[in-house]
Amino acid sequence: MAIVALISVIAVVLTVVLLFWRPEIVLGAQLMGLPFFGFTFQAVGIGSGVIYFIFALTMIAGIVYSIRARVDLQPCTPIEYLIFAMLAYLAFSLVFTPAPEYGREKVLLCLGIIGPALWMGRIAGQSKMGVSRLLEVLGFYGMVTIWLLVYVYSVTQGESTRFRAGFGPLAIGYTSATAIVACFYITLEKKNPIFRVFSIVSIAAGLVVIVATGSRGPMVALLVGGAVSLCRGRGNLRAVFALVLVVALGVFAILKYSPESGQNRLLSRNKFARMSALGRVELLQLGVEHFLENPVAGGGSGSFAIFAFRTDERMYAHNVALEIAGECGLIGLSLFFVAVFKACQEIRLIRRGAINVTENSGRIIEFMFVAGLTNAVISFDLPQQKILFVSLGVLAGLSRRRMEMNHTSLRQDSVESTMNLQRV
User: Fold this and answer.
1) Residues 6+ apart with CB under 8 A from 154
2) Within-domain flag for 150
3) Residue 270 lies in a domain
4) Structural domain containing residue 83
5) Is the distance from CB of 221 to CB of 174 less than 8 angstroms?
6) Has residue 15 been placed in a domain?
7) What count of other Cβ atoms lies within 10 Å of the Cβ of residue 20?
8) Alpha-carbon distance 32 to 30, whole Å?
């Protein structure tokens, strides 16, 4: 693992240096940088603080980007107001939560992960070139991430205790899925055949990593997101061909290289040992019961573990809607649902061509959103839904740009009307 640590240190140093040249690279660290930063911190003997270090980098990158690009951050869009209102209520719920220890940690994680992801996505989404640059950076970052994870798997030979490397299998699977979505942009957009071939091979390798870790949620999210976003509309033969080719290579690689244990977990209905024989269905039932206990205000940040297992630690129902409903009640759930509805409206406008982004950029943004939303209802908890909130940020930026263009168009029409009246 010494080579992995060395590669990770190099990747972290390059990320810190390059963020002043291309601030978008910090979103690669936000979405996929946990292996690099985790291994680096582990190599130097630091056991915690990775997420908050990435948060600090994100804030620096956001400031640098805003100054260099002269980004006007006001006014906020409805998506931003709704998400930040939900986070504010989650923080307020610390007043009455029965889980003060993990409740505080969860609020900090949400502010440190969701806030910067939403903000940086929004900044990039405000300009057409910003979206393209962001997706390009994420694509190349994704390819590097996938091959690091492949190397980790190869040197550990599938031994789960060593494969974790301070970083659970679910997180590895989710990171691989995020990297795969990003790589699709390189496959579709880049004209250089070397980049295309390498991105396709990287996607197939990423699928092997997902199966090796037995990550069911990320796999389902990829399938749903790809089907919805890549196989729609006319003139999408390249996207469909890329998807079919990647799936074919992925199936071959999975059958040939992934361990039987990972395949069994992906296809079976095994219970989580940590949950004392409780499976996903039981967790969802507990989530519903948790919500019904206090449906309006919710039980407070981190209260699910207290309700279900009488312990103040990180546990969740593997469904973000139930998680928000149980901890923030109908107040928080309504804010989240309206934000998702607003995002769906922006996706609809992208499909109709009402928002000025390239076709492939639009497809990948939709892929990110649909995959993130799908994963959010079947796997992980709120602070870890990074790709969903980055896509919400990008859609918020696109919404802001659309409103500015509409305002400019109306102002020009008003000026022209005034001049015509004066001539009459």
Assistant:
1) none
2) yes
3) yes
4) 77-397
5) no
6) no
7) 13
8) 6
Q: What is the DSSP letter of 297?
A: T
Within a 10 A sphere around the Cβ of 111, how many other Cβ atoms? 17
Residue at 359: amino acid letter: E
Q: b/e per residue, 258-273, with b = 16+ CB within 10 A?
A: bbeebeebbeeeeeee
353: exposed, middle or buried (Cβ count in 10 Å: 0-12, 13-18, 19+): exposed
Reported as half-sphere exposure (CB side, CA atoms, 13 A), residue 394 has a value of 31
- The tens place of each residue's pLDDT in the chain, 424 residues long, gives 566 667 677 777 878 788 777 777 887 887 887 767 776 776 666 656 777 788 888 888 877 777 776 777 667 889 999 999 999 999 999 999 999 999 999 998 888 888 888 887 888 777 666 788 889 988 998 998 888 888 776 665 544 444 444 456 677 788 888 999 999 999 888 888 899 889 988 988 888 888 877 777 888 888 888 888 877 665 566 666 666 666 666 666 666 655 555 555 555 544 444 444 447 778 888 999 999 999 999 999 999 999 988 888 888 888 999 999 999 999 999 999 999 999 999 999 988 888 878 888 998 999 999 999 999 998 888 988 989 999 999 998 888 888 776 655 545 545 455 555 555 5
Q: Is residue 218 domain-resident?
A: yes
The region that residue 185 occupies, defined by phi over 0 for left and psi between -120 and 50 for alpha, beta otherwise, is: alpha
Q: With CA atoms as reference, report the closest residue to 102 among 417, 371, 383, 322.
A: 383
Whole-angstrom Cα distance, residue 18 to residue 282?
Answer: 46
Whole-model pTM: value is: 0.86
Closest CA to 299 of 278, 283, 282, 316: 316
Q: Measure the CA angle with vertex 63, ends 57 and 64; round to 5°.
A: 85
- In the chain, the number of structural domains is 1
Cα separation, 69 vs 218, whole angstroms: 34
Q: Measured between alpha carbons, how far is 197 from 201 in angstroms, rounded to an integer?
A: 6
End-to-end CA gap in the chain: 80
Distance CA 416, CA 422 (A): 10
Instruction: Find where tokens 């409903």 sit.
Output: 325
Alpha-carbon gap, residue 320 to 376, rounded angstroms:
5
Residue 165 CA to residue 179 CA, distance in Å, equals 19
**Residue pointed to by tokens 């908890």:** 381
